Amino acid sequence: MHERLNKGLKSCMIGNLMFLAFSIVCLIYYIVFSPDSVLSKILEITAYTCEIGGFALLIWGDWLISSSVRFRTIMKLMFTLYIVVESVMMILELNSFKYSFYKPYSLLLAIIHAAFSGFVCLAFIQLDPDNKKLELSVIICVAVIFAGMLGNIMGLRIYFSIMVNGIAYALLFFFILRLIKREDIEIDCHGDRARVAEYKTTFFDE
């Protein structure tokens, strides 16, 4: 069953790299934007392609992880919610010229986005609580996520935070895959013969 888990983690890692590509395309899009420009239309289509591709990979990966790993209900629910929130923000970011209520330069929006993303990232500690290597990996990724707020402080749009999130979560799944490969963490999956135990932390106590 670990093979299913590994596929899910790899899918989520690639999905987040697609979100990173989306943000880079957005950066170019806003630099060259012109309502009647063919290049702007091509970049917009490319951005939507990256967004839809990343969204599909994350949904697939989320399902594989959720259906293979025992327990960790909070982690599963929060990551699913994270996928929904990120997708909505990407749609609003790319169509911000159409939605007057959306404030892409809002520092408050960047703070809330980083806080939510960081909290979701912390939930992955449920995979193997009290494992120092996993904790260190999660802390590094949370630090990267909060660095995304610097973009808004420097006057950049929220796509910078989305870009940084893509990097942070791609790193998170890479770290988890590496820890599994090196047998530094133990994750009980459905179908394993190993003992069945529900891992809990006081921080995410259900």
Describe the overall structure:
The chain is globular, with a radius of gyration of 18 Å. Residues 194-199 have low confidence and may be disordered. The chain has seven helices and no strands. The chain starts with a helix and ends in a 25-residue tail after the last helix. Helix 1 runs antiparallel to helix 2. The chain is mainly alpha-helical.
Task: Characterize this entry briefly.
The protein is mainly α and 206 residues long.
Number of helices: 7
Tell me, rounded to a whole number, the average pLDDT. Answer: 86
- Termini separation comes to 25 Å
- Poorly predicted tracts of residues: 194-199
Structural class: mainly alpha
Helix content: 55-70%
Into which percentage range does the β-strand content fall? Answer: under 5%
Query: What's the β-strand tally?
Result: 0
H-E string: HHHHHHH
Largest sheet: none
**Overall geometry:** globular
Cα-atom Rg, whole angstroms? 18 Å
